[in-house]
Amino acid sequence: MSRMLFVNLAVKNIEATRKFFDGLGFGFNETFSDENTASMLVNDMTTVMMLTEAKFKEFIADDICDTSTSREALLCFSAESREEVDSLVETAIAAGGSAWMEPQDHGFMYGRAFRDLDGHVWEVMWMDPAAIG
Prior knowledge:
By secondary structure, the protein is α/β, with parallel strands linked by helices.
């Protein structure tokens, strides 16, 4: 059985968040999006639910992580090439995100990371298909 994955993240501004990730080429499922939620499609089996902080708090019994001082997760998505890694990260930074950590170059695998508008860390990585398997 293939499992679906739903990642839920607290965000301050749904409209700004949608614009930011739309600029990186992600689409949204409008059926599950509204003024408090942006349902970002990663692939057929993976969705990132961006929830306003008030909406996010409806699903938790404790506090939202302060992303200016802590990491609640490292989110990573793949790119088709080293060049696409650089392009996506540079696009994110130009759209108001910020660089995070130094690039990681292992020859067969290359990655960079950025922080989105709410401080969540997104890694972008490419791996040489010949090195897999």
